[in-house]
What we know:
elongated; mainly alpha
Amino acid sequence: MTTQVEKNFSNYFENWMSQLEEFLRLLLIVPKEISHVKDHETLVNKMTAHHKDYYTAKWAAAHEDILSFFNPVWLSPLENAYLWVTGWKPSMAFRLLVGATSELSDEQVKSIDALKVKIRAEEERVEREMERQQVALGDRKMVELARLNSSTRVRTSGCTSDSHLNNQLDGLVEVALKGLMISLERVMKMADCVRLKTLKGLLDILNPTQCVGLLAAISMLQIQMRKWGRKKENLCS
Length: 237
C-alpha cells in the first residue's frame, strides 16, 4: 500500500523527468561553437536550478517519510538496483565526463583529479555512516527490545490485564524507530550533499560548452535507465 508521500512524490518525479527530457533536447540541439557561450550559460543555469528543485522537494518529502526514499515506488527495479544511498553515486559523474566534453586543459585535469580524490573520501564517509546505521539495528538494546516485545505479546495474548505493558513496549519501539528514521534522513542528506558538491565542483571547473556536454550525458543516462527499466517491467508483466 502506497503512502500519501509516495503518491505525491511519484507525481512530482514524473513531471520532473518530463522537464528533464525537454532540457536534454535543448542541450543536444544548442550549437557547440564558442560564439554561443551565452546560450550555454543559460541552459546550464536552468539545469542546475532544475536539480536544486529536485533536492528541495526530496528533502521535504523525506522528512515526512524517509523510508520511501530507500525503496522508491516511483522507480523501476532496474533504477533501484543502481541507487547509492537514495540516488546516483557521485563518482559516476567523473566517468561520464570522459568523452562527454571537449578537450580538457592540463589545469582542468589537475583540478578534476583533486576533486575526484575529495569526493571519493566523502563517499567513503557516507558509506561508513550507512554501515553504522545498519549495524545499529543489531545492537544489544534493539535486540533486547525486539525480544521483550515478541515474548510479552505471546505471554499476554488474550489477557487484557497486561495490555498496559504492551502499550509501554509499543511506545519504546516507536521511540527507537523514530531515532533510526532520523539517522537515515541524516545519511540521505549527507549523500545528497556529496552529489551536489560533485556537480557544482565539476561545473565550476568546466567551461560553459563543456558543462553542456556533461549535463547532457548525465541526463541522457538517467532518462535511458528509466526507459530501459520500464521496458523490462512491461516484458515481465
